[in-house]
Amino acid sequence: MVLAPAQRSDGMTKTVSKPKGQTWVDWMPPGSPEPFLLTRSELLQELADQGISISFRSLENWQAKGVIPRPVRRRHAGSTQAMYPTWIIGAIKHLKYAQDRGMALEKIAPLMRSWATRDIQLTDPLARPKAEAQAALLAYVRAWEQSTGGSAGGVTVCVTDGQGTELASIVFSVTPENG
User: Where are the domains of the chain?
Assistant: First the structure.
């Protein structure tokens, strides 16, 4: 919660709490890898490069109303900056498209998280390499099975550092429908 001043009827101010709002981290599906991040100015420039003109004020307004998630503050280029995931670009495109067709923010807001979740899955930077690795490994396993007469149920690939410490792993099942 963030404490914010509120004007009282007698002219004095009182402090009231208001919800801080969700960040893009709250919108990420469980287990998702951290996405590539953009600064606010990089985000606005990327949108402009794609023909979508958004002001800083519009971005802030959408965040305040909970239509899009808030950024996360991180150290970048020597200072702390508001950082956004690259998938927010797709979500903002959906938002602008709906707004340009007369849809009210109140109607758009409930749809934004599902649009963002879809865009997160579409922009997984590892999705294509995983699929390519799976196809290559499957071909290798099939060739191994033919040459040895054996059978494999799966393949585990481990990514290690220089000392052999496992950093990541992925398991591919080898099933008849895969081959």
Answer: 22-122, 127-178
Instruction: Specify the DSSP class assigned to residue 83.
Output: E
- Count CA within 13 A, CB hemisphere, residue 127: 9
Give the up-direction half-sphere exposure of residue 47: CA atoms within 13 A in the CB hemisphere. 28
Backbone angle region of 51, left / alpha / beta, with phi > 0 → left and psi within -120 to 50 → alpha: left
Strands 154-160 and 37-39: unpaired
- Between the CA of residue 88 and those of 10, 37, 48, 162, 167, what are the distances in Å? 43, 10, 14, 35, 28
pTM score of the predicted model: 0.56
* Residues 47 and 55 sit within 8 Å (Cβ to Cβ): no
Residue 1 DSSP one-character state: -
Q: 22-122: which CATH topology?
A: Multidrug-efflux Transporter Regulator; Chain: A; Domain 2 (1.10.1660)
Strand-pair partners of 5: 15
* CA–CA separation, 36 and 103 (whole Å): 30
pLDDT along the chain (179 residues), means of 10: 45 49 85 83 93 92 92 90 90 90 89 75 60 72 83 74 73 54
